[in-house]
Each structure stands twice: as C-alpha cells, then as structure tokens.
Amino acid sequence: MYKPLIDRLERQNILTQDEYLLLIENRETIREYAYERAFAVRRKYYGNKVFIRGLIEFSNYCRNNCYYCGIRAGNNNLERFRLTPDEIIDCAKQGYSLGFRTFVLQGGEDAHYTDDDFCFVIENIKKEFPDCAVTLSLGERSSESYKKLRQAGADRYLLRHETCNPDHYKKLHPPAMSYENRLRCLEDLKRLGYQTGAGFMVGSPYQTNADLAGELVFLKKLNPQMIGIGPFLPHKDTPFKDMAAGSSEMTLFLISLIRLTLPQALIPATTALGTADPLGREKGILAGANVLMPNLSPVKTRKKYMLYDNKICTGDEAAACIECLARRIKKTGCEIVTDRGDYQNGIQC
Ligand code: SAH
C-alpha cells in the first residue's frame, strides 16, 4: 500500500504533507524499501562516493541560550575555550595533509571574533589551499557580515533552521531568538551565493510527526544544497536534560525521504546519529546519506565542544578517525573520497 507512495516520491520528488505523514506513521512496513530506493538515487548522482568534511570546532563560547544545547551561555559547568585564528589555520593545514578538501568552521556565536578575524582565516586557507572549500557554521549574523565572509572566499554555510514550525521554535529557544531571523539568515545566505545547508533535530522535545512531515515540505520549498539532520540527544546541564532522546531509526527513515525528495542534496550521516547508534553512520549511508564530518579539532579541546552527552570521537586524533571511518564505510559498498564534493546540479554519474 505504501510502496506506490515511495515510487511516486522517487519519480516526482514531492509528496503532500499528509502523504509524508502517512509514510512516517507507517514506516515499519516500508522502511527497508525506502532505504533501498534512497541508496539507489544517491548512487545515480554521486556513485559510491562519500565525501568527507574536516570539522574544526573553534570555540564553545556562545551568546545564545538554546534549551537543548550543551554549550549554551547559561551552562556554567563548562570549561570554555577558543582557538586563535592561527590555530584554526593550523587545523586546516593538518587536515589538508590528511586528504581533506573541505573545512567546516563551527562554533558557538562568539563575539570575540570580528568579521575581520574570520576573513583573515578564510583568506589564508583559500590562499594556501585554492583547491579547498571553506564552509562556515557560525550561527546567525547580519546580512553585511555574511556578505563580507562570502567576499573573503567562504563557499558554503551550514545553518540548521532547527524546526519549520514557529510555535515549536519558541519551545526550543528563549524569547531573544526568533524563527523569523533564522529564516532571514538562510535567505541571505542563498542570495549571497553560498551553497547553503539547513536541517533539524529529530525527536526534539515537543516535536510531532506532523512537524516532521512539515519538515519535508519545508525543505522541498527551501531547496538547500545541504541538509543535516540528527537525533536530539539530551545534555545534562541544559533545561532539556530529562527529555527523551530522538530516535536513530526515525532519523534514518527521514534521511531516506529527504534523499528521495531532494535527490542531489549533500546529506551527512551525523555524529549525533553515530552517538545514538554505534552503527548509525553506516546505516545513514545505506539510507541515502553521502557525507561524513570527522573532527579535526585539537584533541585537547574536543571534549569541551559537548553539544549533548556521550558524543563520540572526542578522544581520537583525526588520522585515526579517518581510518576508522574508511573501514566502516567500505562495508556499505561505498568509499570515502577526497574530492571537494560540490553539489551536483543536474549531472548524473
Ligand atoms: N552556533 C552554530 C552551530 C550550532 S551546533 C549555529 O547556530 O548554527 C550545530 C547543531 O548541533 C545545531 O544546529 C543543532 O541542530 C545541533 N545540536 C545542538 N544541541 C544538540 C543536542 N542536544 N542534540 C542533538 N543535536 C544538537
């Protein structure tokens, strides 16, 4: 009964919110088929390639107070750190020698760094490694700031919208933050020519299945090049410490629906997915994901970038992480490659 819906989704890349909801609520019966089709669609555009992005977590200072996040401003139990611009550039250098051709700079919203600081880092990385992409994940900024960073050479920007439901947004964030500003940022980024990434947590507190169906409709309309989703995982020093974790199984099913809805998207199998299920990242690849984001941050600061409890890969050197991932991914029939891994607009393998 649900197979024709998956087939139509594969053909037309769109369903109604009610149809998505029907699939989500009945995923038990159709899951394996959805994974199989999503894997096939992924292969059509990207072959068996899995792209790697070197994640540099440069600061855990944050001015925001998101109720779910372990590095929120209100968490006084956390030792704060920030890397200097030169230390960030050094991480990229190390990553380059390990084969990375994309660097993702991610941090809390830390006003210590000026636009000029970020421009300095971006310009230096691009000058030294012109064959690399620089991806930013710096949170919400002004339109002017996004423009400067883009002019300095940044190629991509990750900014998860977190939820497409404005009422739900209010339940996850304090009044100082707004859904409208988050969307304004995403529109700015698209307009400025960044390859743009959106996304949300699966199973965040107060989220309903109808919200999840709404996410697919929302993503289809926004049409971002990258889509990151992962299960919500509680952090002990946040207001959501006693909330239930999101499900890795639901996350996998949604990855497959996202792949069928946006066939060419770059979709990571996230660290949160690998934390919720020890085989989560491999399963994510088999459900249609095509990106992995191993950590390039110095080992000494890794444990301090704890967005949620029990985060994996906080002890290993980057080189060891890559080896481990390469071994895991091989079992899926895919292969980690060192290409920049840009969005494939219209091109099929
Ligand atoms: N300050 C940046 C980076 C945020 S951290 C920004 O605002 O974009 C990157 C992502 O981690 C967030 O967008 C959020 O979706 C996810 N995240 C934060 N806390 C989490 C938690 N407790 N469980 C799972 N994912 C979490």
Order of helices and strands: HHHEEHEHEHEHHEHEHHHEHHE
User: Any guess at the CATH architecture?
Assistant: Alpha-Beta Barrel
The total of beta strands comes to 9
Number of discrete domains: 1
Offer a quick outline of the entry:
The chain has 349 residues and is α/β, with parallel strands linked by helices. It has helices spanning 3-12, 17-25, 27-46, 85-97, 115-128, 143-151, 166-172, 179-191, 209-222, 248-261, 271-276, 280-286, 299-302, 318-330, and strands spanning 49-52, 54-59, 102-107, 133-137, 156-158, 195-202, 226-231, 291-292, 335-337. A 6-stranded parallel β-sheet has the order 2-3-4-5-6-7.
Report on this structure.
This protein is an alpha/beta fold and 349 residues long. A six-stranded parallel beta sheet has the order 2-3-4-5-6-7. Helix 1 runs parallel beside helix 3. The chain starts with a helix and ends in a 12-residue tail after the last strand. The model has no long low-confidence stretch (mean pLDDT 97). The site of S-adenosyl-L-homocysteine has 18 residues, from loops.
